[in-house]
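Tokens as discussed.
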């Protein structure tokens, strides 16, 4: 073999060996790259916490207690049965007040709209509550309710169309434009009705006119054009004797975890199946609801049971076997529900009842008004797993009272009727006002104060 040929053979062999090495290296690199973590590119959206500039604080009251059916010629006509007593206050003095028209009740008094005007960049906290007591041939009892914020969507969980009941859906529009309100009834039969509520007026609809045949109705109130304040006025007659009245504020919407604070169980000489009754509705889907009852001052569960709830069909269950006293009722569901509890202190003449709606979570600074009435108390319920400190003082500068609510427990505190209180908390709490005497019951949850603006997250 010539020298040049040998050199070419050697060069070719070297290239083959080098190529094989390169191929093996590439395969190994690819295999390693497949199993190795790849570099990632992430980008966090710019965001910032912004507290909106507050607007004026506005509360809408309910006005006169209405009587239905006193005119035998026109049984659906309404008249004024009693004027309420109003308690109000604010951190910058009493809020401004103006009246709304009540065109369907010619002899009615004014419906108050209360406004706390923004000062600089701060809106004052305002609060107000109404109460009424009556004893006539067709209406007797005591009722109280806070003045509230109008809503575009709300629910009335309570009332009945059974014999002896006279329930009224009251709609108040404090805006400068009309509101078109759709009342959608959930029950054994579904129905709906549209009502036009003119600007700055109040109107009312008998519950029987929209929910006939439903013994356990739930009404969704949907407003277009302007928000409305919806209230359910209930009254009961048993064996020709008036047996109580109530004013129930609408709730905001379905939730999976509801807390009913300020529930009271009264002694009963007979069957206690009607003394405390829970009504639950799951809109659109079936739900499984777990109910837990805790006595005031204890975290122990004294009663617990499960309730299957069919979609769009209200379920009602009695809380039986409970000793007389004050309780907190937790309603936990696997789907959003609305709920309310009806309590009563007896039967027939000299008895009364009240519908109790869920108490929302409140935290920080809250102002609430205690209506005029018998033996008012505020029940503070701590459903969290940490102790919460609550400071309570009258808005006129009274001495503050500080208390610690243990995790999972509730505490009742006496308050003064006709006073306005400022409450500060260092954690989440739920609260309800109770006013109780023989033949007089009212319960209302404490709401977050009008005028408080929460920070929101803005993504530029």
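Sequence:
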């Amino acid at each position: 073999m010539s020298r040049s040929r040998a050199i070419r053979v050697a060069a070719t062999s070297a290239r083959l060996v080098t190529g094989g090495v390169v191929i093996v290296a590439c395969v190994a690199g690819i295999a390693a790259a497949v199993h190795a973590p790849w570099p990632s590119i992430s980008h966090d959206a710019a965001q910032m916490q912004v507290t909106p500039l507050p607007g004026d604080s506005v509360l809408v009251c309910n006005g006169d207690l209405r009587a239905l059916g006193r005119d035998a010629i026109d049984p659906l006509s309404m008249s004024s049965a009693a004027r309420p007593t109003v308690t109000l206050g604010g951190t910058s003095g009493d809020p401004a007040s103006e009246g709304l028209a009540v065109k369907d009740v010619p002899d009615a008094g004014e419906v108050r709209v209360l406004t706390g005007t923004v000062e600089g960049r701060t809106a004052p906290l305002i609060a107000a509550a109404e109460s009424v007591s009556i004893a006539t041939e067709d209406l007797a009892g005591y009722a109280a309710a806070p003045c509230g914020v109008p809503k575009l969507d709300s629910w009335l969980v309570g009332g009945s169309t059974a014999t002896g009941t006279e329930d009224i859906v009251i709609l108040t529009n404090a805006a400068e434009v009309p509101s078109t309100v759709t009342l959608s009834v959930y029950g054994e039969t579904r129905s709906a009705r549209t009502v036009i509520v003119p600007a700055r007026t109040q109107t009312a609809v008998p519950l029987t006119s929209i929910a006939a045949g439903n013994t356990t109705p739930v009404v969704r109130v949907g407003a277009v054009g302007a928000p409305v304040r919806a209230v359910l006025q209930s009254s009961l007659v048993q064996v020709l004797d008036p047996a109580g009245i109530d004013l129930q504020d609408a709730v905001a919407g379905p939730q999976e975890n509801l807390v009913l604070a300020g529930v009271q169980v009264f002694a009963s000489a007979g069957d206690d199946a009607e003394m405390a009754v829970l009504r639950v509705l799951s809109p659109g889907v079936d739900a499984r609801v777990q109910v837990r009852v805790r006595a005031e001052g204890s975290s122990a569960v004294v009663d617990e049971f499960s309730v299957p709830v069919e979609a769009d069909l209200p379920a009602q269950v009695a809380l039986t076997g409970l000793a007389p006293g004050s309780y907190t009722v937790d309603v936990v569901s696997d789907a959003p529900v609305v709920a309310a509890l009806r309590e009563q202190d007896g039967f027939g003449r000299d008895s009364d009842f009240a519908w109790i709606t869920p108490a929302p979570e409140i935290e920080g600074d809250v102002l609430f008004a205690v209506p005029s009435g018998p033996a008012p108390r505020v029940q503070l319920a701590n459903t969290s797993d940490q102790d919460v400190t609550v400071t309570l003082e009258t808005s006129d500068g009274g001495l503050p009272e500080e208390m610690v609510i243990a995790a999972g427990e509730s505490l009742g505190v006496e308050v003064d009727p006709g006073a306005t209180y400022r409450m500060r908390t260092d954690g989440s709490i739920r609260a309800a006002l109770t006013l109780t005497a023989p033949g007089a019951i009212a319960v209302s949850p404490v709401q977050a104060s009008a005028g408080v603006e929460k920070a929101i997250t803005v993504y530029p």
